[in-house]
Amino acid sequence: MDKFRIYELVEVEERTVAAIRKLLAQLSSSEHSFGADELLAIVESPSTHLFVAEYGKGICGMLTLGEYLAPTGRKMWIEDVVVDEAVRGNSIGRRLVEHAQAYAASSGGGVLMLTSRPSRVAANNLYRSCGFGIKETNIYRMCVADKKSPV
I need a surface site. Which of 15, 50, 91, 95 has the fewest CB within 10 A? Predict the structure, then answer.
């Protein structure tokens, strides 16, 4: 693929917001309220890196890398990996994951983790082929409501 590149998103543009909305719709059937404010919060966060794959003039894939420090060391999580269905099968997902791995290594290292539903067979095969191993653990999830009270 000529004219292909991966880079960290550092600016908010309406075309970028639209491209990410399109990718989110392909990642999950859950509705995501995502706009310029949400993208700006991601771009401005020092602990979040949104890497996008661009082909020609359009964004065709993305991967989020979050990082934090814990008493047991530096942790990094890969989240929201998605490649536009129109260009899947061109190793874009692999290139995004490898880009995140290289970034993690060059920025101090640590433990790099991700989760993937077992039904996502191609994604799981990709992660294993990129060197990730399965960790036997339980993942617990809770949605915490924002209960802002007037003061």
Answer: 15
